[in-house]
Amino acid sequence: MSGTYGLAGAADTTIVLLRGRNESGGLIKITGRDVPEGEYAVKFANGSTWQFDGYDLDDAARTARTRANAIQIRNRLRVSELQPMKCGRLTRFRLCPCF
Fold first, then answer.
1. pLDDT for the residue 99
2. Model-level pTM?
């Protein structure tokens, strides 16, 4: 990978490790010409090594999908909280105070 844009040049296979700042969990994304594409959940263990977050690759892929779905739901909730409430709208287990 090169530069701010992350140009891969002529690489046959690219493996990227993504994680949030100060988080112990992350994702490994693999893409290439001769490998199956995939996303796998990983965790930083023992302060020195990355391990798949699951018993095998299939389990780590399932965990990655679950995390991605949770992030999408969390982002949707944040967006909906920024929108003005309408009367009678159910918000976090209570009705809008205008109702």
1. 41
2. 0.61
